[in-house]
Amino acid sequence: MGRFNHYSFLRRKYGKSIFVDSEHLSPEALEKKHRLENDPSFRKNHMEYMSGMEIIESDVCANVMAQMNSYDYSKYTAEDVKAALEHNTCTIEDFKALLSPAAEPFLEQMAERARLETSKHFGNTVYLFTPLYIANYCENYCVYCGFNCYNHINRMKLSMEQIEKEMKVIADSGMEEILILTGESHTQSNVEYIGEACKLARKYFRMVGLEIYPVNTDEYKYLHECGADYITVFQETYDSDKYETLHLLGHKRVWPYRFDAQERALRGGMRGVAFSALLGLSDFRKDALASALHVYYLQRKYPHAEMSLSCPRLRPIINNDKINPLDVHEKQLCQIICAYRIFLPFVGITVSSRESAEFRNGIVKIAATKVSAGVSTGIGDHDSKYNGKETDEVQGDEQFEIDDNRSLDKMYQDIEGEGLQPVLNDYLYV
Asked: Residues 115, 338: contact at Cβ < 8 Å?
């Protein structure tokens, strides 16, 4: 099959194919890659669980998908939006109106309502954290991700000694909350390896989060016992058909197992869970609706748990600068975040360094409650990035390009300059 004979969807969305071949792949690997890209029958059923994946009984997925599949945002009018903004409590129907194109002219009113809700429930506080990538090996082929198994990048897995060194550098900067991330490789980054990293993190940080591949309930219990307090899982897109065309190989291909990850984590004892769609992969309004409803329905089952939403957009990746959200502009992103806050007033909202400093400075005054600082998406490079130290040590390549490169000190100062109170941590691990 020809290299550029790919899905018309991706061609329409990105102008040219986002599939990139590497000269480092063997002919056999290239043949398999092209067949995965072009022949759906060659790929495993994305709705069937793989061996070892836990299946739980839950009605959350059915509830979310019923609402998403029936959502016709073109039917909402300006009057629907006005009514939604007048209601003291935002219903699901109101939320749908606020996500619709009809709400775009009401962005200022939405922002003011969101600001009031944020102030009421969170005061003027903004929480700060930083991610730490400890490995970038991955067994999945997700076509938009820099870590995907076919992308020719510098792969690296930090030893425990290297992990501790990175954590010391981050802790010395003043950071008290860390988010540990890996590529999705069960062989290179097994649960025990991640658990040991959590134990180290507890020595240096008051709050430890994980953004790793989904695991079973007993494994989440083990990771919590090792020191992890919350987990983040991106569903990427709630459109299961579109998901199938973007996740072509690996455990991540199984859409329903990924969907239930947060619920398994809560059953495993995690205090908090975070949700997100990667906006720009599919219809962003439907993905935003499904993300929020995922939280909404789980809140009702697990009222004790802390839940939060992230709002990431696609970013360019190494070897492919064509990865960008061509249909989710800052105005639409602001609309989504404001709608989230109005619909889910108690939920934390994180805006990452994927977005610009200007956007993040503005959105924390309206609806966002958490931002990252001092960010690197590479492996083993914090000493050089934080302290400017030259090193001959091998470093792993980044997952994607960030936009906001501010240090913790700079982020802290800028938040204070906006009249807000930056907070490094106010949690106790139990």
From this structure: no
